[in-house]
Amino acid sequence: MSHRYMLDTNVVSHIMQGRDTALLTRLTQLPVGQVVMSSVTLAELEYGLQRRGQPERLRKALTQVLLRIDVLPWDQDAATCYGELCATLEAQGINLSDFDMMIAAHAVTLDVTLVSRDKAFAQVPAGGKQGLKLAVW
Question: Which of 3.40.50.720, 3.40.190.10, 2.70.70.10, 3.40.50.1010 is the CATH number of 5-135?
Answer without folding.
Answer: 3.40.50.1010
